[in-house]
Amino acid sequence: MDTWISCHHNFVRREQPGDEWLYVHRKGAVSARADEPGIVPGSMGAPSYHTCGRGEARGLCSSAHGAGRQLSRGEARRQIRAGDVVAQMDGVWFDHRAADALRDEAPAAYKDIGAVMRAQRELTRVVRRLRPLLNFKGA
Ligand SMILES: Nc1nc2c(ncn2[C@@H]2O[C@H](COP(=O)(O)O)[C@@H](O)[C@H]2O)c(=O)[nH]1
Ligand SMILES: [Mn+2]
């Protein structure tokens, strides 16, 4: 099957986003050149987005690669209980036996993906919003 979207978020490429040629390093960011497809995932319980770049040179033709963390892993483990993970994953199938181990991956450990998409609307356009149905994370 053809790959629909291949979207790396740790690479360097020589590019000319404006007048100058640059080595653009993307670490936790994705390329968002004009009409370029991308993926911006939310969290294990929040929507993900298929996107289309706007080629905004002031943003080095880039966008965020995800919602990003609201809480560090340590802070998430301190603040979030297994029961919170189950509650936050309401409507998404996952292995409840792993709820305790997944405290640092809980939806509340990540920023609000809707707010992140609004904040970067000049960089990338939403093509499709995907609601999570099932999540599996290996130990
Ligand atoms: N669709 C999912 N998105 C997730 C999940 N866990 C985290 N995330 C989001 O992805 C980005 C990028 O994560 P990275 O590990 O590649 O750096 C992260 O900021 C979250 O917004 C998940 O289980 N499913
Ligand atoms: Mn990453």
Architecture blueprint of SSEs:
Blueprint: E1 10-15, E2 22-27, E3 29-31, E4 37-40, E5 48-53, E6 62-64, H1 73-79, H2 82-88, H3 113-119, E7 124-130
The structure holds the ligand Nc1nc2c(ncn2[C@@H]2O[C@H](COP(=O)(O)O)[C@@H](O)[C@H]2O)c(=O)[nH]1 and manganese (II) ion (MN).
The ligand Nc1nc2c(ncn2[C@@H]2O[C@H](COP(=O)(O)O)[C@@H](O)[C@H]2O)c(=O)[nH]1 binds at residues 41-44, 48, 65-68, 105, 110, 135.
What are the main properties of this structure?
2 domains; two-stranded antiparallel ribbon; 3 helices; 15% helix; elongated; binds the ligand Nc1nc2c(ncn2[C@@H]2O[C@H](COP(=O)(O)O)[C@@H](O)[C@H]2O)c(=O)[nH]1; binds manganese (II) ion
Characterize the structure shown.
The structure is a single chain. By secondary structure, this protein is α+β, with helices and mostly antiparallel strands. The protein folds into two domains: 1-68 and 112-133, no CATH class; 69-109, no CATH class. It contains three helices and seven strands. The chain has helices spanning 73-79, 82-88, 113-119, and strands at 10-15, 22-27, 29-31, 37-40, 48-53, 62-64, 124-130. Strands 4-5-7 form a three-stranded antiparallel β-sheet, with no helix packed on it. Strands 1-2 form a two-stranded antiparallel ribbon. A hairpin with a 6-residue loop joins strand 1 and strand 2 (22-27). The longest helix is centred in the middle third of the chain and has 7 residues, at 73-79. The model has no long low-confidence stretch (mean pLDDT 96). The chain binds the ligand Nc1nc2c(ncn2[C@@H]2O[C@H](COP(=O)(O)O)[C@@H](O)[C@H]2O)c(=O)[nH]1 and manganese (II) ion. The site of ligand LQESDW3C has 12 residues, from loops. Residues 41-44, 48, 65-68, 105, 110, 135 line the site of the ligand Nc1nc2c(ncn2[C@@H]2O[C@H](COP(=O)(O)O)[C@@H](O)[C@H]2O)c(=O)[nH]1.
